[in-house]
Each structure stands twice: as C-alpha cells, then as structure tokens.
Request: fold
Amino acid sequence: MAYQRPNPDDRSDNVEKLQDMVQNTIENIEKAHETMQFSSPEEREKIEAKNQRREQSIEAMREEIRDEAAARQNGQ
Reply:
C-alpha cells in the first residue's frame, strides 16, 4: 500500500467560508425566532438555549475570520 501525502493546507478561502458560516448561522437564529411564536414554553426554552450557543459560535467564527484575514495580509 502506497503512502499518500496529505493535501497541503489551503487557507486561501477560509475567510469566505467562515463568512458564509456566520451568515448561515444568523439565518438559523432568525428562523428559530420565527418558530418560537408557535412553540410551547419548553420548546421556546430549548430554542433560546440553542440560539445562545449559536451566538457564541458566531463570535468564535468572527475571531477566526480576524485571524485568517491577518494571516492572509502577512502572506501566510
């Protein structure tokens, strides 16, 4: 069995991918807010908790976007 070399780390489009992920997560939050109107109190509580986790994920992705943009500017 031949050894396969791993693909090189291609970070060239990480910023764009992360921005898409942030946008998708924001859309999911908005959809969840719409769903909450028709939800039971228990379901609303679960949705709110999930949206809090989504907000935390967005902040982490935005931090990673800043890191990736800085790396791109530094030629990495």
Remarks:
- The chain has a mean pLDDT of 91.
- Residues 14-73 form one domain.
